[in-house]
Amino acid sequence: MEEKEISQAVIGRLPRYFRYLGELKDQGVERISSRDLSGLMKVTASQIRQDFNNFGGFGQQGYGYNVEYLYNEIGKILGLDRQHNFIIIGAGNLGRALGNYLNFERRGFIFRGMFDCNPDLAGTKVRDVSVMPMEEMERFIAENDIDIAVLTIPKTGAVSVAERLVQTGIRAIWNFAHVDLNVPEGIQVENVHLSDSLMKLSYNIRRGEKLETGEGSL
Ligand code: NAI
């Protein structure tokens, strides 16, 4: 399938399609119309058709979409048809929680190593992965075909660790540290700020209250 330049907004919606289609596939659903998918996902059918048209449409007019085919194709677009090895840097609360999350493996993201600068943590385990000292990071990345580094350390150390990661030729950084990282083109950075999502929630609570009390829309 030939891929044209796709907007980040469309790419951002693909994981949700992938998730819903995975559930439908598990339930044994073979075909679904854009209307039914729209009802399920609470997005308009035209949005779904528009999104899928970016990739050639996927569907047969009138017959709906073949769920398994669509699931596999979206998986390929997301690069989930191959394995990604990742390490976590920062073996604190957040790093350990991510390391313990088994579902990443189902999607082909394999947790290989964990690093921390605190010598007291060296040798402690998260599942079957031992925490290693930072001095071993470069060698480990080179020897274990690591393509993603997850940064769960405070922002003070994140920039210099990211610089070291760049030197290793890492492909991507999943950055939870509250700092913007300057990395060369070709290295992908995805910043995650859970508090952004909470603030959005807070806005919506406030908006709901205003509408209820008739104070007008924001
Ligand atoms: P934590 O204090 O439990 O763990 C941090 C770990 O990083 C510690 O084990 C520490 O020894 C290690 N560390 C510190 N500097 C390091 C360095 N330069 N190199 C290697 N290891 C280093 O903290 P927690 O709760 O796990 O949070 C980690 C960071 O993630 C925090 O800075 C916090 O601000 C951030 N965070 C971000 C969230 C987000 O949504 N983006 C959500 C929660 C936390």
Describe the protein's architecture and organization.
With 218 residues, the chain is of the alpha/beta class. Helix content is 45%, strand content 17%. The chain has helices spanning 8-26, 34-41, 45-53, 67-77, 93-100, 103-106, 137-143, 155-168, 194-212, and strands at 31-32, 65-66, 84-89, 109-116, 125-126, 129-133, 148-151, 172-175, 188-191. Helix 8 (155-168) links the parallel strand 7 (148-151) and strand 8. The model has no long low-confidence stretch (mean pLDDT 92). The site of 1,4-dihydronicotinamide adenine dinucleotide has 24 residues, from helix 5, helix 8 and helix 9.
Bound small-molecule species: 1,4-dihydronicotinamide adenine dinucleotide
N→C terminal distance: 44 Å
Task: Please tally the helical runs, counting DSSP H or I stretches of 4 or more residues.
Answer: 9
Residues in β-strands, percent: 15-25%
Order of helices and strands: HEHHEHEHHEEEHEHEEH
The count of DSSP E runs of length 2 or more, i.e. the number of strands, is 9
As residue ranges, the low-confidence spans are none
Helix content: 40-55%
Report Rg.
21 Å
Q: In one word, what is the shape?
A: globular
Q: Which sequence of strands runs across the widest sheet?
A: 5-6-4-3-7-8-9
User: What about the largest sheet?
Assistant: 7 strands, mixed
Q: Mean pLDDT score, rounded?
A: 92
The structural class is: alpha/beta
